[in-house]
Amino acid sequence: RKEVEQDPGPFNVPEGATVAFNCTYSNSASQSFFWYRQDCRKEPKLLMSVYSSGNEDGRFTAQLNRASQYISLLIRDSKLSDSATYLCVVKGDSSYKLIFGSGTRLLVRP
Amino acid sequence: DADVTQTPRNRITKTGKRIMLECSQTKGHDRMYWYRQDPGLGLRLIYYSFDVKDINKGEISDGYSVSRQAQAKFSLSLESAIPNQTALYFCATSDFGTGGHNEQFFGPGTRLTVL
């Protein structure tokens, strides 16, 4: 079983749609959680951290469920520029190691 | 100018050749990392370094070596390249950060093809 699992997609949605991605992680001792965004053939960049209470950044909302070891990302009012691969990232129980999911691809169509 | 740079950006080489990938950063971070990315597998950690002369193996270090010559530079070597090392390689940096939330900043990547 992979340490971080994501639905690879692609999710193909029209502009303005709301879309949600899910991610599960296997290590219950994991400390921190993030969503990174990766455009085609580019480097990953931090989109947002995920906090236990849930957090929102504009059109993006991240949720964490520690009991179910589940993380989600909700994107409202999708834009064409949101088309990318979204990587679920978990920091393990050591201070350095980030574990990356293989990513969920989002395509937003006009 | 980019904070994390990688050279070369693209490289095609032959089986058995030695190749070095270079990474430089101007962010002043102590921690540096090398990852490889393969389709469907996500990023996997090859080596990491917390300071000059500090070298640690990641999950897939076999066939690779690294050198941390200075705080700003971290190089990755393939002593004898093989085709299954064909991948996209990323260098990343981080500091410790508040509460241990060590956001990693990535270079633009090196696309390596081993024939």
Please give a handful of descriptors for the protein shown.
heterodimer, A: 110 residues, mainly beta, six-stranded mixed β-sheet, 11 strands, 0% helix, globular, B: 115 residues, seven-stranded mixed β-sheet
Structural class of chain A: mainly beta
Number of helices, counting only DSSP H or I runs of 4 residues or more of chain A: 0
Give the class of chain B from helix and strand content and strand pairing. mainly beta
Task: Tell the overall outline of chain B.
Answer: globular
What order do the SSEs of chain A take from the amino end to the carboxyl end, as H and E? EEEEEEEEEEE
What is the succession of H and E elements of chain B? EEEEEEEEEEE
Average residue pLDDT of chain B: 92
Distance between the termini of chain A: 37 Å
Describe this structure in words.
The complex is a heterodimer of chains A (110) and B (115). Chain A has strands at residues 4-6, 11-14, 19-25, 32-38, 44-50, 55-57, 60-65, 70-75, 84-91, 98-100, 104-109. Chain A is mainly β and 110 residues long. In chain A, strands 2, 4, 5, 9, 10 and 11 form a six-stranded mixed beta sheet that branches. The mean pLDDT of chain A is 92. In chain B, the strands form two sheets. In chain B, strands 2, 4, 5, 6, 9, 10 and 11 form a seven-stranded mixed beta sheet that branches. The model of chain B has no long low-confidence stretch (mean pLDDT 92). With 115 residues, chain B is an all-beta fold.
